[in-house]
Design goal:
Blueprint (H helix, E strand, L loop, with lengths): L2 H15 L5 H12 L4 H19 L1 H22 L14 H22 L1 H5 L5 H21 L11 H12 L8 H11 L4 H26 L9 H28 L3 H19 L12
Helix pairs in contact: 1-2, 1-3, 1-11, 3-10, 3-11, 4-5, 5-8, 5-10, 7-9, 7-12, 8-9, 9-10, 10-11
GO molecular function: undecaprenyl-diphosphatase activity
EC number: 3.6.1.27
Keywords: Antibiotic resistance, Cell membrane, Cell shape, Cell wall biogenesis/degradation, Hydrolase, Membrane, Peptidoglycan synthesis, Transmembrane, Transmembrane helix
């Protein structure tokens, strides 16, 4: 992969990671058109760049959540061991501490399923017929959920069962075309969370999983057989960080006053474009090269 291709794919990663349109689907399709399949490892590592943008943008929220979670640990320990103390009753009373634990709980499904089905995720599930189908089907589900959702709840109203559902919806995005943000935002809207709150939690929930996956792939390598140089990967990751930050700002402003309908329509159109490319023989269903 040359630097120009890396710049294009880094921009693509940043522009699509936070929107409910599946960054992995775009990287797969555009990578094929460029003659450069980025591979699952490249995708996971460049996602670290976009998640660093999340870390910077939400730094105050993150520091507050981690601080509250840490302060609640002694009380949780006392409550679990049956000891009574002035801390035990308030172990999960702090909304930020509860949110911290819910993010941990919500991260477990994608970690477990990601490890269990790693080989399939890196190979068979990258079939573009699957990707196109997921783009269309989950686009329709997002549209239905956004129309049906009550748009009343905030993250302070979240229950433990909802945290688990959020986690399962994020795990569904292990299949390219589903979209991690699309899955979690869809779940949030179905449960009645406000659009901006659903988007905000989608960002926060992604951080442990994306950082973990990126670091894991960085040290382990790509089992799909695709190899991308360190310099192109670094360039793409830096671009993903800078442009990703700009996208976060714009997206959160957008969902304050608008619905997700434009993203639904885009997903459906893009899904049929992918099908057209496949039927026309322009791109193969599975990666056709090693770079």
């Amino acid at each position: 992969m040359n630097i120009v291709d890396a710049i294009i794919l880094g921009l693509l990663q940043a522009l699509t990671e936070f929107l409910p349109i599946s960054s992995s689907a775009h990287l797969r399709v555009v990578g094929e058109l460029l003659g450069q399949d980025p591979g699952a490892a490249f995708t996971a590592i460049t996602q670290i760049g976009t998640e660093l943008a999340v870390l910077v943008y939400f730094r105050r929220d993150i520091v507050r959540i981690i601080g509250a979670w840490w302060r609640a640990l002694p009380g949780l320990w006392h409550a679990a061991s049956g000891q009574k103390s002035r801390h035990s009753g308030a172990a999960l009373a702090d909304p930020d501490a509860r949110l911290g634990w819910m993010i941990i709980v919500g991260s477990l499904p994608i970690v477990g399923l990601g490890v269990l089905f790693e080989e399939a995720i890196d190979s068979a599930l990258r079939n573009l017929w699957i990707t196109a189908t997921m783009l269309i089907v989950f686009g329709l589900i997002l549209g239905w959920a956004d129309r049906r959702g009550a748009n009343t709840k905030t993250l302070r109203h979240m229950r433990w069962g909802e945290a688990v559902l959020y986690g399962l919806s994020q795990a569904a995005a292990l299949v390219p075309g589903v979209s991690r943000s699309g899955g979690t935002i869809t779940a949030g809207r179905l449960m009645g969370f406000q659009r901006a709150e659903a988007a905000r939690y989608s960002f926060l929930l992604a951080m442990p999983a994306v950082f973990g996956a990126g670091l894991y792939k960085l040290f382990k390598g790509d089992s799909s057989g695709v190899s991308v140089g360190a310099v192109p990967t670094l360039v793409a990751t830096i671009i993903a960080f800078v442009v990703g930050y700009i996208v976060i700002v714009g997206f959160l402003k957008f969902v304050q006053t608008r619905t997700f309908v434009p993203f639904v329509l885009y997903r459906i159109v893009f899904g049929f474009v992918v099908i057209g490319l496949l039927l026309g023989g322009i791109v193969p269903a599975l990666p056709s090269f090693v770079s």
